Amino acid sequence: IKNLESFDELYELAKNKNYLKFINPFALETLNLKKIKNFLVASIEEENNVTKLESLPYKLIIDPTNACNLGCPLCPTGLQESSRKKGILKFDQFKNIIDQIKDYCIEVHLYNWGEPTLNKNLIKMLQYCDQNQIWTRISSNLSLEYKENYLEDLLKSGLSLLHVDVDGLDQEVYSKYRRKGNIDLVINNIKKIKEIKQKQNLKKPVLELAMLAMSQNEHQHKKFLEMKEELGAQAIKIDKIQHNPNMD
Description:
The protein has 9 helices and 6 strands. Strands 1-2-3-4-5-6 form a 6-stranded parallel β-sheet.
């Protein structure tokens, strides 16, 4: 792999070995020779259970904050049961991380146990990733009243994919899991995003919407999937809810 200099040959190898399943399909277009070489080495090391690695990280999850505006009952943040102190990631700390991995990293996911848009430096972080040709993804509940132009600035930051969970189509259903959330606010923000993307002719970020399947929203699954065009989504799906094994 290290001696091969043909990107097409390396890509075909990754495809034939089914390694590309480890990368978001929307991120494949950001691959270059250095990144795919490192990715192949990492994939082979994982396949062979190698523990002393030559490869460098090709995917990072970086939490801009572990604070959230909602109180979801299967989330340690929402339940206030996390032992981690609440904090906001500073841009200089973020930049230091990116500078170490930018030549090899394919994806950076800027979310985990918090609402990323609560960090005022999020847009600056996304811009820095874009400047370094790194594919980015955030997951937001969008149940916030944003300042004027915030959503436009977010969409023009270089963000690659915006994921939003819409777990109910009316307030009664939505708030059973997304406690403290406002479904009208969420839908309005999604429609603003659609309008901005159309007006500015923006190809990205990809808007990915999901409904976490639960008994209270089963009757809304079909209608939700039919709202793809209305909400301007490029991807829409019914997803599984995750149980945190640390909260047994």
